[in-house]
Amino acid sequence: MKRIDFSGLESPASFCGADSDLCESFLRTPSFQLPDTLDFDGFQKEAIQMVKPIGVITTLAFIFKEGVIVAADSRASMGGYISSQSVKKIIEINPHMLGTMAGGAADCQFWHRNLGIKGPGLYYVDSEGGRLKGNRFSVGSGSPYAYGVLDSGYRYDMSIEEAAELARRSIYHATFRDGASGGTASVYYVGPDGWKKLSGDDVGELHYKYYPVGPAVVEQEMAEISIA
Amino acid sequence: MSIFEYNGSALVAMVGKNCFAIASDRRLGVQLQTIATDFQRIFKIHDKLFLGLSGLGSDTQTLHQRLVFRHKLYQLREERDMKPETFASLVSAVLYEKRFGPYFCQPVIAGLGDDDKPFICTMDSIGAKELAKDFVVAGTASESLYGACESMFKPDMEADELFETISQALLSSVDRDCLSGWGGHVYVVTPTEVTERTLKGRMD
């Protein structure tokens, strides 16, 4: 049976030397069983296509003077159907680490367990094995719209409120233009003392807050003319 | 994504007591991207006849222009408006003419016929007519619309209650569809008046 070797990700299990019975499960190199098929690549492609449609959305994160802001929408769609408007796309890994989801849920959770982030920072990880360190990222089908608002409003020295408002606006604009994003815009702040959820606004209400509907301007009105 | 889902649309028509209501969403998109939030899908043919067209945006506009042309000729020749049943047959014939290269539209026709009896019908893209006594739906959100209408519909509703029902059915269905929504347009037609209202909906 073929197995993927993940020994590179784990630190050596040489700590439990003596008690080999107890540590047998720890010593065994973590691995996944691979399916017993003739065409492994074709099978992989099919599996990815099955999971992919569940993944379209908008998430973003950026580093600024005070720390890191992380924001995401909450819609899950399968083709045209909205399967949920309340998916938690920001995962609280520990009090100092957040992860965002854009893609197959199970894959994301695996990467969260195995990431080994060192120090404060922002990393973009994808299912093809790519890993980038950076200051500003937006991921998902709504990311072009979020980037537009984020890039034009970004300054390194913003206050926490300004940064949160920028993130909220970026997610809102993405949900307006992108059919596959919507629901609630969650904004988290990660600082030296850990993360804190700042807001979770319903995007439907945000629209009317940013673009309130005024009374309709009457252009022409029919007047009653009395016939004497 | 099929050609019928390219622009996204949602249409519903309901029958009430001596009145009918026809409602649509207002989104025009290019697959997942939203281009406009004020796209018109319901067209007035005459005071007691409305046509809703769902499906590909350019085909809805072209088909609307062709049908208005045919109706105007009919008005000139017959010196009267077309009955809804006749108009439905006309639409069906126009669609079937293009049997092997169809318009990618699903029309919904709603009107008040003889004695102001409400008439609604829908057809597929090649003109197969489906008459109904209660409600008809079309568009990318049609499955959700069927469910919502089935549970919310009651026979013989007055104009106000009909407006509430059709609006709730439309809004709750498009909230489950990525490709339609961004507001709503409702026309309620009684023998004496036509009321046009815009719905405030979720803009995501």
TrEMBL record, chain A:
Metal-binding listed as a keyword: no
Gene3D superfamilies assigned: Glutamine Phosphoribosylpyrophosphate, subunit 1, domain 1 (3.60.20.10)
Listed SUPFAM superfamilies: N-terminal nucleophile aminohydrolases (Ntn hydrolases)
Coiled coil: none
Subcellular location, record wording: Cytoplasm; Nucleus
Entry GO CC: cytoplasm; nucleus; proteasome core complex
Family matches, as InterPro entries: Ntn_hydrolases_N, Proteasome_bsu_CS, Proteasome_sua/b, Proteasome_suB-type
Cytoplasm in keyword set: yes
Keywords attached to this entry: Cytoplasm, Nucleus, Proteasome, Zymogen
Annotated PROSITE patterns: PROTEASOME_BETA_1
One of the GO BP terms on file: proteolysis involved in protein catabolic process
Family: Belongs to the peptidase T1B family.
SUBUNIT field: Component of the proteasome complex.
Functional summary from the UniProt entry: Component of the proteasome, a multicatalytic proteinase complex which is characterized by its ability to cleave peptides with Arg, Phe, Tyr, Leu, and Glu adjacent to the leaving group at neutral or slightly basic pH. The proteasome has an ATP-dependent proteolytic activity.
Record protein name field: Proteasome subunit beta
Automatic annotation (TrEMBL), chain B:
Record field: transmembrane: none
PROSITE patterns linked: PROTEASOME_BETA_1, PROTEASOME_BETA_2
Keywords annotated in UniProt: Cytoplasm, Nucleus, Proteasome
One Pfam family, short name: Proteasome
InterPro entries listed in its UniProt record: Ntn_hydrolases_N (IPR029055), Proteasome_beta_3 (IPR033811), Proteasome_bsu_CS (IPR016050), Proteasome_sua/b (IPR001353), Proteasome_suB-type (IPR023333)
Compartment list: Cytoplasm; Nucleus
Domain of life: Eukaryota
One GO CC term on file: cytoplasm
Protein's GO biological process: proteasome-mediated ubiquitin-dependent protein catabolic process
Protein family membership: Belongs to the peptidase T1B family.
Function, as annotated: Non-catalytic component of the proteasome, a multicatalytic proteinase complex which is characterized by its ability to cleave peptides with Arg, Phe, Tyr, Leu, and Glu adjacent to the leaving group at neutral or slightly basic pH. The proteasome has an ATP-dependent proteolytic activity.
Subunit structure: Component of the proteasome complex.
Full protein name: Proteasome subunit beta
